[in-house]
Amino acid sequence: VAAHVPAYRAFLAEHAIDPNSIQSISDFVRLPLITKANYLRRYPLPDLCRDGRLERCDMVAVSSGSTGEPTFWPRFMADELPITTRFEQIFHDSFRADERRTLAIICFALGTWVGGMFTASCCRYLAAKGYPLTVITPGNNREEILRVVGELGPAYDQVVLMGYPPFLKDIVDAGRARGVDWGPLAVKWVMAGEVFSEEWRALVGERLGATEPCYDSASLYGTADAGVLGNETPLSICIRRWLAAHPEVAAELFGEARLPTLVQYDPLSRMFEQQEGTLLFTGDNGIPLVRYHIADAGGLFGYTELLDALAQHGFDPVAELGPGARGVRRLPFVYVFGRSHFTVSYFGANIYPENVTVGLEQPEIREWVTGKFVLETPEDADRNRYLAVAVELASEVPADDTKRRAIAQSILIQLRRLNSEFANYVPAERQLPSITLRPLGDPEYFPLGVKHRYTRKTSA
Fold first, then answer.
1. Which terminus of the chain is less hemmed in, N or C, by CB atoms within 10 Å?
2. Phi/psi-derived region of residue 445, left when phi > 0, alpha when psi is between -120 and 50, beta in every other case
3. Plot region of 327 (φ>0 → left; ψ -120 to 50 → alpha; else → beta)
């Protein structure tokens, strides 16, 4: 990378590092971390690519940055091939798509956003390799998805829905309301972008008539920065399901009283490091990344390390899956609690406090509020996620429904205006935030004398 990427060569020079001095892993871990702020936004986009040639990239994907501004991620077809291996692991090990005629329905948003086009490309490579797999791309158009399911689904042995967890549940529920009999379609589902509970997985499986929870679904740990970094496997799901029933063991292993996403990864494709409770990774891409700090909270376990730790508590996931089970691969594990503490993820869209602040600063709103708020994405009784905003009222300002409705509309307008992911990923009927108005200094959300946090992670 130092030899061929102009930006990284300049970055190392700024830190007085001779690339030739990096000869061992002990040397490597002294390299400075790169971030969007100190690297990606400081150099021209072509300089971040090999030989400074942006035109050698085949495609460009887009994600929103910390202020909702788009970040461009050029990539080559060659970057997609190792990512296709992650999809193949799921389609082969979990879904037996090498043996079953499979219809893969891309339910991620299409366009420049990374999820839809990337997933479609990888699935087409599997079809080209010889899998009896057909790909169709309705995107996040609910009516089109249900039409595809109804008209094409019965012609296949199984249907795979691929999208963000809350949106896939919306599709399942909408189909049930219209009389879709999901059971005969043998539906599987692939997810990305959200941490969800095992209760949520079980509920969706029940509504689909799915009967093998370790093999009926899989979640991806992916980023626009570097594609898919890891994926759930039957083994990791088996472990996570057991940990969901034994929260005291999960807290001991992961150090928090919430259950993270648990996936396996290929260290020959993506190298992970753990530093102070966050993850770093290194991997080749259209923009090569070396010790990239993405601000995801999480950590690592070796394959034997995690299985030995579980054995100490009397659980053997390999035995649980049974002899000859697909999906038992001796790959290390990475666990991730979610993105930055300063965002919440909703239908795969990163929602930033900066976007909400603008909604509270509008002339008709700002006299009512202090400007402090808390973002959350809790579940309702039917396990549907919704966007909730607790807003602190100014002194002696009473709460009423007129203010609540006006604040919700103002925030909605600004989220649609400022955050393209929110506008395009989140179904229109799920975009209006649920507002609660709290008095000044409310001890639950706005305690006095404590540094304010604008987001609250919802336990999964």
1. N
2. alpha
3. left
The CA–CA distances, whole Å, from 170 to 140, 146, 165, 178, 456 equal 11, 11, 9, 12, 24
Max CA pair span of the chain: 68
pLDDT for 220-273, tens place per residue?
Answer: 998 878 889 999 999 999 999 999 889 889 989 998 767 889 999 999 999 999
319 CB-contact burial (10 Å; exposed 0-12 / middle 13-18 / buried 19+): exposed
Q: Which residue has the tokens 């509309």?
A: 409
Residues 203 and 383 sit within 8 Å (Cβ to Cβ): yes
pLDDT tens, residue by residue, 324-377: 889 899 999 999 986 545 788 899 888 888 788 889 988 889 889 988 899 999
Say what the pTM is: 0.82
Whether the per-residue pLDDT at 131 is higher than 80: the answer is yes
Alpha carbon distance 283, 239 (integer Å): 27
**CB burial class (10 A; 0-12, 13-18, 19+) of residue 400?**
exposed
Q: For residues 46, 50, 54 and 60, what is the CA-based torsion angle, rounded to 10 degrees?
A: -110
Burial 6-24 (b: 16+ CB within 10 A, else e): bbbeebbeeeebeeeebee
In the 8-state DSSP scheme, what is residue 51? Answer: G
